[in-house]
Amino acid sequence: MKLFNGKKNPQPDSPNPYLNARRSWNIHMGHVQQFGALGIFIGVAGLLIGLAAVGGITYIGSQSKTVPMVYEQDKAGNYVSLTRADRLPPAKIDDYRTAVWNFIDHIRTVTPDGELQRKSVLRTYAFLFPDDPATTKANEYLNGSKERNPFTRAKTEMVSNELISVLQQTPDTWQVDWIETTRNRDGTLKNPPVRMRALVNVYQNTNLNAKINENNDVMNPHRIFIK
Question: Residue ranges of the domains in the chain?
Answer without folding.
Answer: 92-226
